[in-house]
Amino acid sequence: MQKGQIHQLKQQLEREKKELVDQIGGLEQTGLSSSLSESIGELSVYDNHPADIGDELFERSKDLALRDNAHILLENIEEALKRIHNGTYGYCEKCGQPIPFARLEVLPSANECIDCQRDDDARESADRPLEELILEPPFGRTFLDDDAVDSVGFDGEDALQAVMAYGSSDTPQDIPGADDYKDLFLNSHEHQGIVDRADIAIDPSDKRKSTMKE
What we know:
The chain is mainly α and 214 residues long. It has helices spanning 3-32, 36-40, 54-86, 101-106, 114-126, 132-135, 156-164, 207-213.
């Protein structure tokens, strides 16, 4: 690679570095340096309704992702500048072959040729944790939504009922025909337990079972 080309790419790297530093500084000044409750002027971020703070949470999550990505790009640029200083810039760190100038014009911080980069990308997508073989889909061993309708196992509907039994942001007035909070979710009045009432033989002389029937 010619010295003029390296000088051109170095200027491009320094220009991109300055832009990233300014971007990170701007994101920090918008409130990322303080907690969420302080940045929006609230005493607490635990509101009664889950949508009360949804917009603020989305914007903060977006800013955090932009800042983290800027830090990664900045680190890559600094590594590229070090390679220029050491005289190793423009060569693939994996195979040692020169990186085409056209690729460096688009991505001056590139440290691998296009073929080696494709191999790395394919390997990263294929090398998944071994435990995913038994954990895919999530909760596949315990949630039985895809099984037969008459399954008596703990499925997704049962999980929703168990959570909503502790309450939600809805009230009986939000659901037509609801008389109490148990009417807010499907089949809320069904019997909870291992043995169904219909499976218990009622003996008139057994006061305990008669009480259960009542």
